[in-house]
Amino acid sequence: MAEPFLIGEAMTGGYGGADILHACTIAVEKGQIAVIVGPNGAGKSTAMKAVFGMLKLRAGHVKLAGEDITALSPQARVAKGMGFVPQTHNIFTSMTVEENLEMGAFIRRDDFRDTLAQVYDLFPVLKQKRLQAAGELSGGQRQQVAVGRALMTQPKVLMLDEPTAGVSPIVMDELFDRIIEVARTGISILMVEQNARQALEIADKGFVLVQGANRFTDTGAALLADPEVRRSFLGG
Amino acid sequence: MDILNALIVFLNFVFVPGLAYGAQLALGALGVTLIYGILRFSNFAHGDTMAFGTMVTILVTWWFQSMGINFGVLPTALLALPFGIAVTALFALGTDRVIYRFYRKQKAAPVILVMVSLGVMFVMNGIVRLIIGVDDQNFTDGERFVISAGDFKTATGLAEGLAIKTTQAVTVATALIVMALLFWFLQKTRTGKSMRAFSDNEDLALLSGINPDRVVAVTWIIAAGLATIAGVLYGLDKSFKPFVYFQLLLPIFAAAIVGGLGSPIGAIAGGFLIAFSEVMVTYAWKKVVTYIVPESMAPDGLLQLMSTDYKFAVSFAILIIVLIFMPTGLFKGKSV
Questions:
Q1: Helices (H) and strands (E) in chain B, counts
Q2: How far is B336 from B333, CA to CA, in rounded Å?
Q3: B197-218 confidence digits (pLDDT tens)
Q4: Do A92 and B201 touch (CB under 8 A)?
């Protein structure tokens, strides 16, 4: 089997001091959705940050399209085609929606109006509110701004850290729909999700982490069907 | 009752001087607020940066004057101003490279950076006094008045005169142009937007590929420019004395904090608020009141709330009141 498009392989490391990740492997194929789930404190966000280079790895490596990017800074990874949406503080609150998207495209020197139009097509509400300060929007709309900002670089991989944290169930469904739409355009999605059941339903691949190590790895459907996964992590 | 003459006295002694002083404070506070928003510390050296920039401008002005170059009715210092800005910007960039960058790389706490800026302040203080001395320097030339009190009286036939000094008109006009340029830069240009993004959310700005070194350098250049312009305008309007510039730090900080640290609009509003408060509280209102009330009720005292020696107390009082009731300032800046 060919190597996945993006893979963080046998990653070990932490924020200094004790390791949080123990030989943890996360991967996503081109145009697919991979979801990281697990209990609180399992190292889900840490694994994501490690893939994005926000954490120093003691062992293991990260490869994007076959190229070893373990030593690259997060900024350099953005230039390589990775987009990252942090869980919190993921928008410029004092700037307008449109300025947020422009800042997302900051590293691009070409004309990004097409991408801007695509983002507005994907999130029509943002077009309506494009001259409003992003900090004045609702939680769901802010998440759309955050995802839109990351899409402005035309990434090949989009990494989302709990995109549905703090939004209502209806907005959550809507966000998941949008994420599927993004994946259909050929962008790989890697996301950490608190709402494990819904996330696994849309996932091509699921990674269940426990204490910084892989516990189960399978397709989303298979994990949902696995009685042990259901009992331990999905509440029956 | 003579409302018209009362109004002229008010304009002449309160409004026009307050407007000019407010514009100078606003320009100073803009520099402080920019540094605070982007570099995230209160730059105590800002007053002495103003003194440094003014000193360079004065030296270039003298050089121009010695060569017989002048700016007609306008002060020659305006021609020298670009040189003052350039030298001050280089000095600020050098200070950043040698001093501030070291602490930034260490991710030093803001209070450490404040102390560092205090050190820079003393050094700049010393440099300015070594080069130009501690005395008053008057470097204003050109036409003294736009309208002199005498001309105003003969033109209108009123008992009171309204004088507008050239330096006051120049101050207000320059401040308006500079503010307009600054807002255009921050709102419309790519670099300006990236500075606002950096000020808003540093981590996300880095994630978006905004180059922090560039943002920091541009910030220093703009802050040095604003400081020099504010300093030169103040010096033209009054006179240049290093110690007075050091003292200006208080009303400037009060203006920036009252408006909301990190908010450019707030800095401008704060500048005018502090300036008008200072002028109005320390002005002797006797003349104005005498014109308004019937003759029998004319006041005996000066009707001065506070002697001008205490003008800094006004900044302090406003600062404390705002910090108690609106800790983030009038325009929702960052809390201190």
A1: 16, 2
A2: 9
A3: 999 999 999 989 899 999 999 9
A4: yes
Q: Which two tokens stand for residue A14?
A: 């932490």
> Across the interface, do A106 and B206 touch by the CB < 8 Å criterion?
no
Going along chain B from its start, the domains and CATH numbers come out as 3-325 (1.10.3470)
Average of per-residue pLDDT across A211-219: 93
Tokens of B309: 């020696």
- Cα separation, A27 vs B32, whole angstroms: 47
Phi–psi pair at A11, nearest 5 degrees:
-75, 130
Cβ separation A103–B208 shorter than 8 A: yes
The ipTM, to two decimals, is 0.88
From its phi and psi, is residue B332 left (phi > 0), alpha (psi between -120 and 50) or beta? left
CA distance A236 to chain B (A): 38
Q: Give the start-end residues of each E strand in chain A.
A: 6-13, 21-28, 33-37, 57-64, 67-68, 82-85, 157-161, 188-192, 205-210, 213-218
pLDDT at A236 (0 to 100): 64
Interval A178-212: pLDDT, tens: 999 999 999 999 999 988 888 999 999 999 999 99
Distance (Å, whole) CA B70 – CA B319? 41
DSSP B96: I
